[in-house]
Design brief:
53 residues, 1 helix, 0% strand
């Protein structure tokens, strides 16, 4: 970077790569947890429906 103007895109630093990787992992884990919650709710709903009948 020269004088605050980027002539070319600079490659990410190791720290930036690590943060990006960690964010991706957190995103994947979050999606898995959300999916588990949905499946658990469906399971509970199914149990309640069968108990009512």
């Amino acid at each position: 970077m020269k004088g605050g103007i980027l002539s070319e895109a600079e490659p990410p630093t190791k720290k930036q790569k690590k943060v990006k990787t960690q964010n991706e992992v957190n995103n994947i884990e979050g999606k898995l947890l959300q999916r588990e919650r949905v499946l658990a709710r469906r399971k509970v709903a199914k149990i309640w429906r069968t108990k009512r009948l």
